[in-house]
Amino acid sequence: MRAPLAYAANWLPLAEPTTRWPLVGLVSRTVYPVVPPRVDYELTPLGKDLLDTSWTLLNWALDHVGEIDKAREAYDEARVSCS
To answer: pTM for this one?
Structure first.
């Protein structure tokens, strides 16, 4: 069984470079001209709204993890038998 958090991580743009997050308005990025470099990130109101939705989606995935695992296993088995 895969970790439930892995399901949520697959749906969120966590792999996107953090420098691109401000482009879609989810995060504000503040760069400070200091050594060592310092960059602060903060959720914008739009990001906070998405966070609420993301928690709802995560909770749904956790509630249905057994069904999701069964569906993935059935899909994987069907792909193997077709090969």
So the answer is: 0.52
